[in-house]
């Protein structure tokens, strides 16, 4: 047994989990409990060797789903639990051992992430009750970006809003950007240096990383800022909200719904938020799908070029997330807009890279031009290794105190 860590990601009606070994590889068991609270709630398990099982859990609560997950771990007991927490505000700059005080402090950040943190907290509360004896650690999506300088994280609005209400840019997808940054340092001859990382999943964000530290990132106070995403608009004119309210009589709630759930790839294409389907539709000549892909790639390229300002030099660009790892078309289209950064794509290597695998896709004969790499992300592996490192350090600290 390799000291497995149970990684838990609690949403408002779902719980994703994975039991991750050291070193992290494919999780020995993972899954998702979906539609919790509804009559068709269900736990989908994926065990080692690809065995899949669906267990119906009608009207299950988070607590019941967690208990069922625990039962299915059998004798594979974790040594600790790592929780994904979306927002850590300014208070949390790294993975943190959960106790009552830390839970109270996370509760204070709920106003910054009203859609995510309450669900994360429900999961933490239920899990702490079920696994009383196990150390539990919160790993924050925002923590990696706490190295941003003030000129990158402050909005140009009155200071009071920052000082009294914490209104600033925080950034998200921290576990993914941190994992990819560490992996780049391992696989690239250029090591840490200056990297632009594009995490492109249903949510999308890009980050400028220098020597392993985040310097600027595209998401802001909420995960709505920045790039075009599956159903989120990303950046719009801040005056748009007022216009929609005054001219179209829209309520705040309907504007929120519009920009978070009806926009992005879905809104522009009028078809779907799924990039695979969009690529097929664009291939068949669908104008909305064609435009959605073009807006997505152009906006991504423009953001990457802007983020280059945060770096002394651009050693490379890395793609990750479901779209970044799998779509050679999106990588090629995006890089096509970045000639000004001196990028040279090896088109054959880009097309030939097997879906979901790691690889370099730049033209290596163009020495001095930025590397271009695809790095499959591993947020669960990162949360597990942060959790394991912290509990190992704390156990060592306890032992050294005993020795004193
Ligand atoms: P999440 O943010 O929910 O974790 P993922 O990282 O799984 O999402 O990314 C989902 C996106 O990746 C979807 O838009 C999906 O269409 C896209 N995707 C997955 N495989 C491919 C592929 N082979 N080609 C293009 N897009 C893909």
Give a short summary of the structure:
This protein is an alpha/beta fold and 404 residues long. The protein has two domains: 5-140, 2-Layer Sandwich (Nucleotidyltransferase, domain 5); 190-379, 2-Layer Sandwich (Nucleotidyltransferase, domain 5), CATH 3.30.420.40.
Outline the structure in words.
- 40% of the residues lie in helices and 18% in strands.
- The chain has 404 residues and is α/β, with parallel strands linked by helices.
- The protein folds into two domains: 136 residues, Nucleotidyltransferase, domain 5; 190 residues, Nucleotidyltransferase, domain 5 (2-Layer Sandwich), CATH 3.30.420.
- The longest helix has 25 residues.
- The chain is globular, with a radius of gyration of 22 Å.
- The site of adenosine-5'-diphosphate has 14 residues, from helix 10 and helix 12.
Can you tag this structure with a few keywords?
404 residues; alpha/beta; Nucleotidyltransferase, domain 5; 2 domains; 8-stranded mixed sheet; 6-stranded mixed sheet; 15 helices; binds adenosine-5'-diphosphate
Order of helices and strands: EEEEEHEEHHEHHHEEEHHHHHEHHHEEH
Strand tally is 14
Stated plainly, the CATH topology of the largest domain is called: Nucleotidyltransferase, domain 5
Count of DSSP H/I helices: 15
Instruction: Name the shape in a single word.
Output: globular
Mean pLDDT score, rounded?
93
Number of domains: 2
Strand order of the largest sheet: 5-4-3-2-1-6-8-7
Low-confidence stretches: none
Classified in CATH, the superfamily of the largest domain is: ATPase, nucleotide binding domain
The CATH architecture term of the largest domain is: 2-Layer Sandwich
Bound ligands, each once: adenosine-5'-diphosphate
**Which structural class is indicated by helix and strand composition?**
alpha/beta
Task: Please give the largest β-sheet.
Answer: 8 strands, mixed
Q: How much of the polypeptide forms β-strand, as a percent range?
A: 15-25%
CATH class of the largest domain: Alpha Beta
Distance between the termini: 32 Å
């Amino acid at each position: 047994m390799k000291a497995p860590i149970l990684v838990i990601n609690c949403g408002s009606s779902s719980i994703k989990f994975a039991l991750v070994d050291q070193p992290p590889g494919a999780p020995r068991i993972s899954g998702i409990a979906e539609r919790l609270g509804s009559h068709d709630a269900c736990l989908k398990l994926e065990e080692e060797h690809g065995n899949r099982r669906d267990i119906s859990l009608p009207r299950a609560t988070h607590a019941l789903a967690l208990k069922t997950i625990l039962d299915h771990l059998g004798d594979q007991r974790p040594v600790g639990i790592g929780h994904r927490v979306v927002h850590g505000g300014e208070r949390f700059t790294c993975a943190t051992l959960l106790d009552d005080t830390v839970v109270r402090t996370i509760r204070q950040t709920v106003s910054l992430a009203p859609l995510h943190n309450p669900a994360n907290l429900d999961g933490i509360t239920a899990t702490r009750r079920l696994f009383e004896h196990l150390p539990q650690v919160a790993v924050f999506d925002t923590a990696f970006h706490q190295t941003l300088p003030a000129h990158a994280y402050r909005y140009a609005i009155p200071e009071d809003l920052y000082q009294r209400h914490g209104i600033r840019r925080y950034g998200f997808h921290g576990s993914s950007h941190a994992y990819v940054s560490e992996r780049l340092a391992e696989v690239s001859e250029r090591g840490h240096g200056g990297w632009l990382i594009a995490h492109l999943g249903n949510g999308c964000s890009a980050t400028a990383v220098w020597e392993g530290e985040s310097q600027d990132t595209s998401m802001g106070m909420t995960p709505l800022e920045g790039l075009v995403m599956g159903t989120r608009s990303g950046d719009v004119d801040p005056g748009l909200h007022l216009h929609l309210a005054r001219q179209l009589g829209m309520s705040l709630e309907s504007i929120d719904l519009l920009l978070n759930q009806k926009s992005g790839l879905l809104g522009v294409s009028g078809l779907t938020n799924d990039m695979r389907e969009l690529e097929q539709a664009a291939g068949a000549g669908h104008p909305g799908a064609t435009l959605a892909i073009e807006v997505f790639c152009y906006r991504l390229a423009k953001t990457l070029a802007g983020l280059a300002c945060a770096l002394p030099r651009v050693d490379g660009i890395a793609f990750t997330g479901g779209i970044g790892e799998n779509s050679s078309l999106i990588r090629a289209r995006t890089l096509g807009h970045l000639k000004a950064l001196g990028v040279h794509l090896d088109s054959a290597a880009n097309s030939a890279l097997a879906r979901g695998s790691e690889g370099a896709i730049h033209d290596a004969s163009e020495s001095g031009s930025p590397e271009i790499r695809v790095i499959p992300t591993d947020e669960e592996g990162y949360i597990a290794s942060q959790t394991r490192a912290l509990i190992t350090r704390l156990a060592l600290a306890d032992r050294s105190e005993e020795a004193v």
